[in-house]
Amino acid sequence: MIFLLCISAVLANFNTQYVTDQLEIQQTNLNSSKTYLLSMIITQLPINNYCLPLLQIIINNQTYNDSLAYSIKANIQKVYFDQTENITIKVSCNLLEYFQNQKNINKTMHFNLTLNEAKQHIQSPCQFPHYGQNCSLSIQQIQKEFSVTILILNNTWFYAYTILDNNNYEVYVQNGESLFGISIISFNKVNVTRLPSFLQNFVVLNTDNNENQISLSQTEDSQDSIYIIGLYNFNSTQIQEITITITCPFQNEEFPFWATILLISIVIFGLLLFLIILCHYRRQYKKITQIKPVLDRKVLKKYMPTKKVDSKMSSDTCSVCLVQFELKEKYCQTPCNHYFHEQCLYDWTTKQANCPVCRQGLLENEINQLQEVKKNRNLQAEQLNNQESIKSKEDPPSQTYRDLPFLQLSSSPFRTQCKIELDCSPQGEHSPQIIQFDGSPQNLTNRNLYFQSDGIVESQN
Ligand SMILES: [Zn+2]
Ligand SMILES: [Zn+2]
């Protein structure tokens, strides 16, 4: 009895070697209360790599296969099953669609099939981005807008993933003359890594040295889509190099609002800074270059206000520029009763604080002094006039004293000469009488002149 049981247990297990491209066998003597593991160990892949070796178990018309076998060109494929007595085992090399039209396709492979009882069917799921047997492999992340060069072993898959945003992206692949296949699959990030089959979206890249371009469009349901990129090196003997770049060709996104505000702020700040610097330097420049006028402009405006030339003085000339005044030109009159073009006087008083003609000081205190002197003389003249009028009432007016001009001379320290012309002849039969005084200012003050029939005479008293 014990011996028989042993035989039935031995019958369920097997380990057989095959050299074929297609296999289908039935296994009927299984124990439905046990869990089994069917393994395929490939010892030699088909020569030209155009197909995918695949192990399948069919139970009640339902097919089970090693999901990883779709993703990795695995040398070992494993399928667990239980609760059945009959299974159909299928092994095939599924031709990749891209190579359907190839001639001389050899799909023959060498493999071992083993069937064993399994203690427990526990296949712990791998955490993203790990995958493979015992989760020992991991998917490498490719950053957007970076170029990555990857070395891929012969007859090997390489997996990478990238996380994209709302934009559309382009994948550029440079594989030179090496034969590579690529499969890009959109993938919702979950805790468990279930690599998609590379049979989906599988593209064999051109080998004409040009860049291959694949567009990735954003899936609508997820904010950040993960794309898994599978790259397969078809070369059976050599490691090959491939460069991959993921880039966003169009910036669909509008310029962010905060960036606009920041940019405007920077521009305004820059302008303000520029203006402040400009003002500072202008002030400095003015300080350096501007010559302070000797005579304060306020004094000019207060005591020598600007007036407009009228017809009465249009025949006079400005003693600074020697040009005749024109109607409505601006002029200034000094307290010493000299006239100049406004600009001529302004220019003169930047260098000197006196009258260009008589050298009368034009500083405020000098003007006040002059006005004081004028006031006193006017008072004296008034008193004298009053005395004269009293005198004339007492004595009838003499012919010689009529139209007496009373002349008082300024005591300016610069005055050295005085020339007086009088023409009092009503018929103009006499030429103008001229009297000249020369000498020191003391000599010239308070001279009394009288007009007589034979000319101007000076009174000595
Ligand atoms: Zn002038
Ligand atoms: Zn003057």
From TrEMBL:
Region Disordered, annotated ranges: 381-402
CDD domains: RING-H2_PA-TM-RING
Keyword Zinc: yes
Keywords: Membrane, Metal-binding, Transmembrane, Transmembrane helix, Zinc, Zinc-finger
Location in the cell: Membrane
Entry's Gene Ontology cellular component terms: membrane
Record has DNA-binding as a keyword: no
PROSITE patterns: ZF_RING_2
Segments passing through the bilayer: 255-278
Name of the protein: RING-type domain-containing protein
Species for this entry: Paramecium pentaurelia
Upper taxonomic lineage: Eukaryota, Sar, Alveolata, Ciliophora, Intramacronucleata
